[in-house]
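Today's session is about reading a structure prediction critically. Students often jump straight to the picture, but the first step is always the sequence itself: look for stretches that repeat, for charged clusters, for runs of hydrophobic residues. Only then move on to the predicted structure, which in these notes is written as discrete structure tokens rather than atom positions. Here is the chain we will use throughout the hour.
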Amino acid sequence: MRGVTFPDGLRPSPQPSPPGRGSVVEPRTTLRERWRAFRVACVASPAFQRWAAGFPLTRRIATRNTRALFDLCAGFVYSQVLFACVRLDLFPTLRAGPLSVETLAARLGLTPERATRLLKAAASLDLIAVLPDGHYALADLGAALLGNPSVAAMIEHHAMLYADLADPVALLQSESGPTRLSGYWPYAQAAEPDAADADAVAGYSGLMAASQALIAEDVLDAYPLAGHACLMDLGGGEGAFVTAAAHRHPQLGLMLFDLPAVAVRAETRLAADGLRPRVACHGGSFFADALPRGADIISLVRIVHDHDDARVATLLRAAHAALPPGGTLLIAEPMAGTPGAEPIGDAYFGFYLLAMGSGRARAPAELSAMLETAGFRGIRLVPTRRPLLTRLVVATKPA
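Below is the predicted structure for this chain, in token form.
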């Protein structure tokens, strides 16, 4: 190729001669496929990598890609730095203002040298900031965690996920044995999930309450309930979503359906909030029991992605049967293929739910197809304030 100078060790392969009689002719590739193959060959070449890192027009791209690859390799360490900050209450400690290394070391229970190591690591991740006088202060990411205690709860909960992912290949090959997450979420694979007792549901129902509270306001902003008479929250946990709905809509009737032991916990939580008279709590399994009637809108908040397709189909049919003609179904959860958040659906939830033992993140088109099969129509995706945390699909039972 005249006029093009390639780095040593990376030159186009000569074109093969026409096949002889009896040889296998490979299917012709498109120009785009040939360009992709050429690009992969370039990027995979150590010689090209060295050349790109030094060439002015490609240096910035090469540096960015190198950093991205290293971040993938070091991601577990970064998450453990965050875990240490949460476990040691670093962010609440800095809430009142900047502190010196010596003061922080004493409050965190660390030696000054170890405290400095943690503080530098947290500052490099933009969780905190080091000031010109050497004191440390909250940065935006650390401050954001203070306003979202449910995120801190999830960070602590991830200790089980990290243990289950110690050998991801064994997990993929179903050779890792029972996982810690499958024990934590016993309903995921249980033949009779409604038989779980209070002790079995205490941990996960509290975590569900925290995760639902994180997104409840976003869902209600996207789909106001003023036009409805009664909401039933399926898999409502301890009542985080119905509590938010109750405060938004004082005249709205409210129902909650979850496993019997969880429904009892919901009654206690709602009573403490003064909402028990407004919310009818029902215990049962939405895979085996008929759902109570009376609601003209049903919500599934971070529920569908916990279950495999067969169970989701059963759940959607049950919701369809419980709704009156013209009734509405809301599905709110993180979804696969969300623009700008693809790793959340396909990487994070893909492996989290694998370790849990059931479920997967689904794209809106997949949910729409399942809803249509269950008998729903008028299916649409409603924009939410933070789609990386939750997206919202709305469907209607035909009149």
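Discussion point for the tutorial: The mean pLDDT is 87.
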